[in-house]
């Protein structure tokens, strides 16, 4: 007796219904990317470890899945090296390849390798799985898809504007109400410059974020505890209390940051993005939020994040502008801006709000019941017409008990069942049953097509 | 200066144009699978090595990509074991996971793990990459996609019929002229039984296959050299010389195989499949071909293969019926029948015959030239209408030189360019240029939509 098989922890099988839902998500995002002129690329699941290592910090290096070299992976290793049992060090001897950890580093590698074929600005999107040897937990997987779009080779803020339009369109199509949050790394740098505490910017945003919950006094106490001077805290007050419309916030920031060149640049960029989007009209609110501090080591300009309004869940999309995507591979001067939709979280949100459109999840539309060889032959001919009309349809392959065939239709949520017996064949028709209403009617093949297509 | 990055040998990046072509292939296959009621599943890239090992023979085990365990993979290993430097044996200590080698074993594992949720017959398809540490060579890659469809849990030959219809429909949609070859393992077993040379069946099919090239005498000589008795060779003559229509071939086989129960079963199955398909009418020829002997260790009934008629290339699709898909995982009695489209070869055939439909490969349909902030703002508003009408369009993000923007349109094969200057804005219109004909006309946004959609 063979052992019951399992799958690696942190990985998942996707059933037909889950796949239909996931495809709906990917296709919606893909369609909008196409509308905006983004083109798809794919890169291999395996990259050279020399490409991946050192790009995600020490912690990231540990989370790379490494692939053992084929053949004799011991060659060139001394007994001493082997007996050192230094797992991390020997891994680089045993393995030269690893699974991709995100889509950004492979994209940077792609841009460098294909620089001569690419016409810049390059608007690419990529929807592929990534792998991380993270400790699995609820909502965190070792294999998951990323859906990234980036524009590289253009400094224009119109790219930021279009990415926000993409976000707005995608979530409108999903029917998920969201708030788009926007910030700018340059504003944060300006704040740090003004108060002379450049290294405390994360502490500051964390504290500001608590204003609603703990009140101003406690925020100031927390800032003091983090070692921020009273003078700096005084200067921070208008920023902590920043409120009102985006325009009002920007006015306040212009006053506070007037002495910081970089801060003012961030304000101007945000002003352009927000006012352009205001003119265009988004379906979802967009809000300047200084507490947004994702990827501070990476982003150099605008930073985005999207929050679902009707479900308690973390950020469901994020992104920003970065300089020097490809510098680490020896190609400088390539800046870009990108977004990444969190497909797994969007999946959960759509499930919780029950927002999947029926037609996205439905598969087969008509099941033909099989009563035997003659009826099956008759049905196969009708099926050809039905499928030629673009209707997904199937014949139960075996002349099984009616009950079994009906259960099959139910299990697959097939909305119509076609029943063909002696009488129907004699008349050149078939009995079409609506599985939801229970209504039955005797129809021709063309009538069936009309009813199902409706 | 960083080293120039590369990718693992045998793997590929896919550029936007390649991706568009590949998506056209996958979408065409997927659409037809859906029409026939197949549902998609996905399984993880990584499987437990216990799931994969021993399923593909010794050679296959060596070609598995193994993933090094995270953390201290030396634990539990003695110094002696380490110093033995037995790469194959220690791999199983260092690694417990591997990349999937095909879609069949993961599917079998899926069926066993999800048996309680699955309603049989289960019509599943799966389009995912697989990985093999094969020696890379022209047309053979270490990462490639498989596009499999299988029906499990039904013995009905209608499944074979429908799979042939699927093959016929897919290649008709591609515009690739093919010959569908069909054989049956039971016929081959019958032949072996009749001539008393059960273990020589592959030698026999190889020899028969050479009839056209080397003539009957040389075929018989080769059979004799393979150790087949004169008596058996005499009995084989009608089979070697088998020709004519499928019906004629089946008549000959009925005579030759009349004493073999299994042989006659194979003839009857083939007769049913071919005559049903004849009634339905295929667009491509289907031919009973006894030299078809793929997967003899695996297939137990019908065997299929598809050959392109206008390009010299190996089989571009194949499949067959198998018993006991899941026995190795402790679940017996699950038989099935499946096909697998060879996406990489189909890609090559479509390229060689230049059969990609324009709309499948095209991306952006209109590029708006950027002359500056005011013109860009005007264009962004028109773009909203154009995209809302479902047209893929973009604005060049920077006010770069006209020549650079036109080169961009050319490089991306964008068929229309919209030019917006002072005059156009004053009139509330834009100049639309057809990049192929060079024609220009002053149009409104709605007129642009109508022209581009035509």
Would you kindly provide a written description of the structure presented here, covering whatever features stand out?
Chains A, B: L-histidine binds at residues 102-104, 132, 146, 150, 294, 298-299. Chains A, B: Its main location: cytoplasm. Chains A, B: One of its GO terms (biological process) is histidyl-tRNA aminoacylation. Chains A, B: Residues 1-350 form the Aminoacyl-transfer RNA synthetases class-II family profile domain. Chains A, B: This is Histidine--tRNA ligase. Two copies of one chain form a homodimer. Helix content of chain A is 44%, strand content 19%. Chain A has 454 residues and is of the alpha+beta class. The first copy, chain A, contains 19 helices and 16 strands. The first copy, chain A, starts with 15 loop residues before the first helix and ends with a helix. The longest helix of chain A has 20 residues, at 16-35. Chain A has an eight-stranded mixed β-sheet with strand order 1-5-6-11-10-9-7-8. Chain A folds into two domains: 22-41 and 102-353, 2-Layer Sandwich (BirA Bifunctional Protein, domain 2), CATH 3.30.930; 362-453, Rossmann fold (3-Layer(aba) Sandwich), CATH 3.40.50.800. Chain A has helices at 16-35, 49-52, 57-62, 79-83, 87-94, 104-113, 158-174, 185-195, 201-208, 211-225, 230-240, 246-256, 261-280, 343-353, 358-361, 373-388, 402-411, 422-427, 445-453, and strands at residues 39-40, 46-48, 66-68, 95-99, 122-131, 143-152, 178-184, 286-288, 299-308, 317-322, 336-341, 366-368, 393-395, 416-419, 430-434, 440-443. In chain A, a hairpin with a 5-residue loop joins strand 15 (430-434) and strand 16 (440-443).
